[in-house]
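P.,

For your records, the input lines for the assembly:
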Amino acid sequence: MSSRLRLAGIEKSFGATRALGGVSLEIAPGEVHALIGENGAGKSTLMKILSGVIQPDAGTMTLEGRAYRPADTLDARRHGVAMIYQELSLAPHLNVWENIGLGALPSRLGWVDRRAARQRARGALARLAHEHLDLERPVAEFSIAEQQIIEIARALLSNPRVLIMDEPTSSLTQADTRKLFEVIAQLRAEGVSIIYISHFLEEVREVAQRYTVLKDGQTVGSGDMAATPQSEILQMMVDRDVSDLYPKRRATLGEARFTLEGEGGPLTVRAGEILGIAGLIGAGRTELLRANFGLDPSGQVSGKPTPRKRWRERVGFLSEDRKEEGLMLGLSIAENIGLTKYPKLSRVAGYLPPRRLSVMAEPWLGTLGIKARVSEQAVGDLSGGNQQKVALARLLEHPAEVLLLDEPTRGIDVGSKAQLYEVIAELAAKEGKAIIVISSYLPELFGLCDRIAVMHGGAVVACKPTAEWTEPDLMRAALGVSG
Amino acid sequence: MNKVLAKFGPFLGLLLVIVLFSIPGEVREYFLSVPNFKIILTQTVIVALAALGMTLIIVSGGIDLSAGSVIALSSVIGALCLKAGWSAWLMVPAVIACGAFLGALNGTAIAGLRMTPFIITLGMMGIARGAGKWMANNETVNYTNPAINGWMTTADPFDFSMPPGAWVTVALAIAVAVFMQRTVFGRQIFAIGSNEATARLCGVNTVLTKALIYTLAGAFFGLAGLMQLARLRQGDPTVAIGLELDIIAAVIIGGASLSGGSGSILGTMVGALIMSVLRNGSQQMGWPTYFQEIMIGVVIIVAVFLDRLRAQRRP
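Structure tokens returned:
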């Protein structure tokens, strides 16, 4: 087999976190190659390296026999490697030909050569059998599927030899997916190689000829799609040893404390229990928690909750997004911890001396091992792990009896993770808190939870004690594969 | 060191401009005199009072462009009340309530309908200005009742006494400073300005809080309008055009961030003083007004630039 693109021993670290630790990949001309892996397996890092967004620390890339080291995305495009992102990157107010030509509009003396631009746009759309699209309409007026075609047309302008598609069908209907597959077949016939990233195994089997599986930043297998049974690929995705990162504990369950209401039936968590919620990104896990906490309106939750009411019922929520929602980075540790109980901290008529806030917050620095000088320090100065401890301290200080934790260990280093696991396990075991944890990292759920519920397509599809799950089973449920 | 600089940065600026105008001997003699400082303080009252309200708004992450227009409208309403024979005891609360009402309209639209403060208050800027001209029949409103004529002057310009308006400003500044630093509501203003999503997540009623902030600020603009009336002794619907920018500038020079979450009343007051001293000093130097305008523009940019430098150096 002659190869168009070959990767060997690609490594990449971000600070202390090793995102890729030896990835190899080989793709033939005119081949659709599926890149498969769990959330966080390193797929997107690898694609960023291929499309020139970031540079690898080690390893070699060869494009048609020549060394390939793109300096940036423009350089990658010049070499014939183009990427279609999951989130479309069109300018919604501009029309079709402006979008297709964006960044490379043909011009004469600084004036846009409209006729040439339209001609090029039409040519690119014709290759995708979509030349009927009205070039003068703003792209915001087109359907998502058509916008995707426009995005692909833009990528085609640079005559790519390798086209990377990241979850291209995630927001498409069945019919539109069909059409996209026809377009892919067309491109393939023209000799374009396509790297196709997707969670949907069945879909991948249909469109791809070969596959590569990534796990924890490494290539763990590759081969012919048709010759490999699905179960074997699943096994490769999840196979690993659960290390002793997770604290051992024995759950003593108390009474029912909180019930999540949503599609697929209610989920009740009991005092002293840790309930995990697994699922792929977009499965509706965060939405379920937010709706039940009253952050987003939902018709499925009874009693019209608001965050205010929930805190009063001693239910606390930890946001998955520390920067945008979880913390006030410019304010002090004390203010971040105390905000939910200001009225309570003030004993007289809304009067709240800063001293009382510090006295309240100071002990948490020691209890949770928050590395900071004083509780008046701004949270934005702390590391990610310490910020997360501050966010958790808010729930404990309140004190919440029910803890809703959305991706509590996202973006923090391994050491802090282990500390957080310890804290969470103790809260359940010693203080009898009822805890619900969303995580995209399966070992975390297996190591921490008493029960794991799985969501797919916005609904809870299964819920069993952790001991009754195996990782491949759980993955199958999360992918929506029956049997 | 940084902390000291953060706290006293605006003070150093104030000191710097005062020293600057004290260098030429012939200007110093009058510039550093008691009557002149009384004039400076009195000239600061209107901007300073309005800036108290503006600080609340800016710390919460908002902006109010209608302040100047609301001040003018308030002065017209006050003049009309006095002309209609109202006593000052009735007129003063009525005018402040009118300011608060306009602020409440702003706040309700911004918090309740989730519209951008910039747009809403830009609209209110036109509405209040137009309403003022309408109510005043497009001319100044004159009255005879001398009840509030003494607010902005003292009987003897050479003694150490201060006009009542200045005392009211000082007292309110202290009250608002304590309110912002040491009450639940005050700290929630900082929380909303720093990260509104977090405040909501933590159970703060962000809609009500924001509406109240604009209402409170409106009351301050109404009071500033009364001071304007006391100074001119007639209701003028065309007064205080562009004053909202001076008010915002005072807050920003005082160290507040336009993106919200930081700022202090002390800083704002010093910021307002810096601008008054600059104006007053330039006049005595015989500099033309256009030069004053340029100076103030430069000061705003330098102040924010220094603030940025300080923020970046933080470990």
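Two observations worth noting. Chain B has 13 helices and no strands. The mean pLDDT of chain B is 91.

Regards
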